[in-house]
Amino acid sequence: MIRSVEFADFRGHPSIERNDCIVLRRVEYVGSLNVNIAFPFHEDTPNFTLTVPEALTLRNAIDDMVAIKMIGEPAPNYPHRMTAVSERDITRIDALQEEYPLDSGFDRSARDAIQRVKIILGIAQGGTR
């Protein structure tokens, strides 16, 4: 596989014309995959042979220098859309809350956690979402 990257050479005079290039060639030496980099219009510049890890390091360095970031998925907006909670599940959650009737710290913490779950599910006041 051979790829070329054309660019404007500003060494002699400013130009908007793409008048230079770099040629990349995938080669296999003794079972090892490599990338040759050549500057065909620069006779005094030798060709370079990079291993795959070296080529990937070069690619990552160029990415870092250019600092182009891909647009990721948008952060979720909370409260996000939930699936409906059935009346049966609401009854079960209410029953679970009643399993912690004592005024101990553990029971209060459990009731608080269950209440938070109900708020997240949109059933704190009863009803479905």
List keywords for this structure.
alpha+beta; 4 strands; 34% helix
If you had to describe this structure to a student in words, what would you say it looks like?
This protein is α+β, with helices and mostly antiparallel strands. 34% of the residues lie in helices and 21% in strands. The protein has three helices and four strands; from the N terminus they run ββββααα. It has helices at residues 52-66, 87-98, 105-121, and strands at 2-7, 20-29, 32-38, 48-51. Strands 1-2-3-4 form a four-stranded antiparallel sheet. A hairpin with a 2-residue loop joins strand 2 and strand 3 (32-38). Helix 2 (87-98) runs antiparallel to helix 3. The two termini are 56 Å apart. The model has no long low-confidence stretch (mean pLDDT 80).
Q: Mind summarizing the main beta sheet?
A: 4 strands, antiparallel
Poorly predicted ranges: none
Give the overall silhouette.
elongated
How many beta-strand elements?
Answer: 4
Distance between the termini: 56 Å
Count of helical segments?
3
Binned strand content: 15-25%
Radius of gyration: 32 Å
Spell the H/E element sequence.
EEEEHHH
Multimeric organization? single chain
Mean pLDDT: 80
User: Structural class of the helix and strand makeup?
Assistant: alpha+beta
State the strand order across the main sheet: 1-2-3-4
Name the helicity range. Answer: 25-40%
Briefly summarize what is shown.
It is built from 3 helices and 4 strands; from the N terminus they run ββββααα. The protein is an alpha+beta fold and 129 residues long.
